[in-house]
Amino acid sequence: MTIDQFNFAGKKAFVRVDFNVPLDENFNITDDTRIRAALPTLKKILADGGSLIIGSHLGRPKGVADKFSLKHIVAHVSELLGVEVQFANDCMGEEAAAKSAALKPGEALLLENLRFYAEEEGKPRGLAEDATDEEKAAAKKAVKESQKEFTKKLASYADCYVNDAFGTAHRAHASTALIAKYFDKDNKMFGYLMEKEVKAVDKVLNDIHRPFTAIMGGSKVSSKIEIIENLLGKVDNLIIAGGMTYTFTKANGGNIGLSICEDDKLDLALDLQKQAKEKGVNLVLAVDAKIADSFSNDANTQFVDVNEIPDGWEGLDIGPKTEELFANVIKGSKTILWNGPTGVFEFDNFTHGSRAVGEAIVEATKNGAFSLVGGGDSVACVNKFGLAQGVSYVSTGGGALLEAIEGKTLPGIAAINE
Ligand code: AMP
To answer: By the 8 A CB rule, do 317 and 347 touch?
Structure first.
């Protein structure tokens, strides 16, 4: 079932959203992007004459905790949605059941943080540090058992289930995946945000216009290894950028000075190069670097050959030759995936490379390429440089997006499709 096909008139919809927004010390929302991202779905349901039971997590509470209460955001959700959103102080209590049952068409209820219950994630809490393996296993079994009741109860509030929380789609939690089995195929669906995310991932994994270029940046090879290996079977060009660069440089005999490097991954870097060659993938590595004499925005800097970084200096961004090299590859591409900055973009003096990559992607997009940007820091990058409008899609998913690109099945997606 798709959300556009479904008529919510007279139906109660349990909508799992990702309202995990940042709050300041006075519980003001500092960035409401995630709430806004769910609005099209919520508004469509209300406009149809349905009612909303909204479920979300906020932060990583280990139990009930005021600072993680969703009560702090109800007023803002009401304002954005244009209807007075009711609140249930406990997603499992009498109140939640009664308030859901009493909802009339066009009305909305926000449930308290689902993660106040260990059952949401299905992981035991409060285990003693010295718990034996047996105790751990028993606690795990107990929470898995009670998770069934928890999930069933959430499902009982509604007639249909809508998942619009892409950010948690890689987790098999009660409200993100397990709940779906209480609804038949005709009564469960993705929300609009989730649909867009799934479509964007599908485009870079299955509907590829070539050349396909992936730009993988960030700090460590180890955290990107599975994605890189999966991408080697798909892309025409794989650009390696960011801190990962220096593991490759060192593995190939270059001098990297104090640059970030994973010494236990040198063989892996060489193996990835070999795999690329065997698969006919153009692995593009940096040729020069902007180096610094300390890890700080105000450090002294110079541009050098990436293989000749002097002792005491470290590479914090790519240099102009590399920018040009990367930009040329990017501009000649028809499908582009970008994950991870080319340097320490948090320091203004080391943003140039990431900006250049972003601008090249925007230009390629103007010329008809499909470009997907995602995974934490690259989203921060395109936002920082005001380039978000110029790319085809900016994903809201961090871990979820990366797992999808690794080729893994995401439980939140599978549960709807089953
Ligand atoms: P990731 O979370 O793996 O995508 O890594 C993003 C982080 O990598 C950012 O915080 C960057 O500051 C960092 N990073 C990128 N390039 C470098 C570099 N050359 N040296 C140290 N850290 C880097």
So the answer is: no
> Where in 128-263 does DSSP place strands (E)?
160-163, 188-190, 212-216, 237-240
Out of 316, 377, 381, mutate this one to test ligand 1's pocket (max ligand atoms within 8 Å of CB): namely: 377
Task: Confirm or reject: Cβ of 343 under 6 Å from ligand 1.
Answer: yes
Is domain 202-402 classified as CATH 3.40.50.1970?
Answer: no
CA separation (Å) from 356 to 41, 236, 321, 341, 346?
Answer: 35, 21, 11, 11, 15
Q: Where are the domains of the chain?
A: 12-190, 202-402
For residue 340, give both structure tokens.
């991870």
CA of 315 to the centre of ligand 1 (A): 11
The CATH number fitting domain 12-190, selected from 1.10.1040.10, 3.40.50.1260, 3.40.50.2000, 3.30.565.10: 3.40.50.1260
Strand arrangement of the beta sheet that strand 12-16 belongs to? 85-88, 108-111, 51-55, 12-16, 160-163, 188-190
Domain 202-402 in the same topology as domain 12-190: yes
- Give residue 243 CA to ligand 1 midpoint distance, Å: 6
The total of other beta-carbon atoms located within 10 Å of residue 124's CB is 18
State pTM to two decimals.
0.87
Q: Residue 384 is inside which H or E element, if any? A: helix 377-384
The answer to whether 73 touches 19, Cβ cutoff 8 Å, is: yes
Strand segments, DSSP code E, in 165-262 are 188-190, 212-216, 237-240
- Which residues are CB-neighbours of 371 under 8 A, at least 6 positions away? 335, 336, 337, 338, 361, 362, 364, 365, 391, 392, 393
Cα–Cα distance between 269 and 203 in angstroms, integer? 28
User: Which of the residues are catalytic?
Assistant: 34, 220, 376, 399
Q: Write out pLDDT tens, residues 169-227.
A: 999 999 999 999 999 999 999 999 999 999 999 998 889 999 999 999 988 888 888 88
What is the average per-residue pLDDT within 6-28? 96
Q: Which two tokens stand for residue 111?
A: 């449930």
Ligand 1 in reach of 376 Cβ (< 6 A): yes
CB hemisphere CA count around 119 (13 angstroms): 18
Cα 244 to averaged position of ligand 1 atoms, centre (Å): 8
